[in-house]
UniProtKB/TrEMBL annotation, chains A, B:
Gene3D superfamilies, sorted: Transcriptional coactivator/pterin dehydratase
Origin species: Rhodovulum strictum
PANTHER family: PTERIN-4-ALPHA-CARBINOLAMINE DEHYDRATASE
Name of the protein in its database record: Putative pterin-4-alpha-carbinolamine dehydratase
Classification of source organism: Bacteria, Pseudomonadati, Pseudomonadota, Alphaproteobacteria, Rhodobacterales
Keyword annotations from UniProtKB, A to Z: Lyase
């Protein structure tokens, strides 16, 4: 069972993500971000690389793709909220998006 | 400019899709379907194959993935509704989903 992030650990983990364009979702304990790419090839190329990491980390995003746009929501269902696994995947996604 | 499907051509094109689990979307002229796979690898494997076809056909789905589930909406934006291109992509998606 993964534990949710709380207190100072949560604040410190989320601060750089919030500064990098992630936002707290409304209605549940999750973070969300929309990535925009130049075209579908870049958008889906990003998704393919994230998918491999997600499977490797055994932690998967909820995401929606419309052409060059990828909307992502991260939360940890078995923890009932945000955990360190979401922070790890969010950082990884930002790193992958930065090198298309 | 792609033309929307109308009249008998529309009825005949949509009938087999509606019988195969596609439904007309509410609020706009689009069709939607939810695919369920056994796991993320199969779900994203399906998406990867669809993505290659979508790029080849130059017609892209709006889709959302949560683990083993892929929710798809098809419409033709530059036509303002359903066109033969949606029917073609829907058939292709069903064929790909049938051979994971």
């Amino acid at each position: 069972m993964t534990e949710t992030l709380t207190g100072d650990a949560r604040t410190q983990a989320l601060a750089p993500l919030l500064a990098a364009g992630w936002a707290l979702a409304e209605g549940w304990d999750a973070i969300e971000k929309t990535y925009e790419f130049r075209n579908f090839i870049e958008a889906f190329g990003f998704m393919a690389r994230v998918a491999l990491w997600a499977e490797k980390l055994d932690h998967h995003p909820e995401w929606r793709n419309v052409y060059c746009r990828v909307e992502v929501v991260l939360t940890t269902h078995d923890a009932g909220g945000l955990s360190a696994r979401d922070v790890e995947l969010a950082r990884r996604m930002d790193a992958l998006a930065a090198t298309p």
